[in-house]
Structures are given as structure tokens and as C-alpha cells.
Design goal:
Length: about 150
């Protein structure tokens, strides 16, 4: 009977220890549930964005490019409708870890938002600075070398 009593005591002790471990982990889980996970950056965030955005079958796969800088996601590409652009931006913003979204998405026939200003300024800059009609001489050509050797000698 002493062996049987020892067995029951060991069994009760093991079960009690197991339940205490479970309860302590459960309590810690509830205690830390309100905290935000550590921010992710780089390839991990890029993978999250890809998997979130491309689960939507309405988003075309070959027309988008994503870049990640820290927690900022940069979107580039040309989509067929403003609704698609809004859907992609909303999907990227919903990804955990994305801090900021910069969108250079545009519709067909319109320049990208980051190119519109440059395309409008370029003709005015050429006229304002009066760029020369002919290019400057090539310094690596034989004629330029001959001129420099005669000046030195």
C-alpha cells in the first residue's frame, strides 16, 4: 500500500506542476496581449506586404512593384482604375508593421506622381539655362590629347 500511495502522490504532484505552468503562461499571455509586437523591416515586411496584397485576385501581379525603406512601403506601377489603386493602398496600410505608404501608382496615359513635376520642369529649365546647341568636346578623344600636349610642351 505504501507504493500505491507514493504513486498517487507523484501523480498529483506532476499534475499540479503541469497546471501551474499552464496557468502562469496563460496569465503572462493575457498580460502581454495588449503590447505591440516588435516592428519588422526590410525583407520580412516586404514578404508580408506581398502576401497580403496578392491574396486579392483583383490585384494584377505583374503591374506592381514594392520597395521597403524601414517601415515605409513605396508603391510603383500602373493600374487600370482608381478603384484598384485605392484597394492596393488600403491593403498595404492594413499590413501589421507598415508605418507609412508612399504611392506612385498611376492610371494609363498619366505620368507617375513623382515624374509629373519633372516632366513639366524640364522644357523650361532648358530654355532658362540656354543649354548649348552642340555638345562639349570629348576630353578622351585624340584631338583633345593633341591640344593638351602642345600646350604643355
Amino acid at each position: 500500500m505504501s507504493q500505491q500511495t507514493a504513486h498517487v502522490l507523484r501523480h498529483v504532484a506532476r499534475n499540479t506542476a503541469r497546471r501551474l505552468r499552464y496557468m502562469s503562461k496563460s496569465w503572462l499571455g493575457h498580460r502581454f496581449a495588449g503590447r505591440q509586437p516588435a516592428p519588422v523591416e526590410g525583407p520580412t515586411l516586404l514578404d508580408r506586404v506581398h502576401s497580403e496584397v496578392f491574396t486579392n485576385p483583383a490585384v494584377p501581379h505583374g503591374k506592381l512593384t514594392f520597395d521597403v525603406a524601414g517601415t515605409t512601403v513605396v508603391l510603383r506601377g500602373q493600374l487600370d482604375s482608381q478603384e484598384q489603386i485605392d484597394t492596393v493602398i488600403a491593403a498595404v496600410r492594413s499590413v501589421a508593421g507598415v508605418g507609412r505608404v508612399k504611392s506612385f501608382l498611376h492610371l494609363p496615359g498619366t505620368p507617375a506622381p513623382n515624374k509629373a513635376v519633372a516632366l513639366g520642369v524640364r522644357p523650361r529649365a532648358a530654355v532658362a539655362e540656354r543649354w548649348p546647341e552642340e555638345p562639349p568636346p570629348d576630353v578622351d578623344s585624340e584631338d583633345a590629347l593633341a591640344v593638351t600636349t602642345t600646350k604643355e610642351g
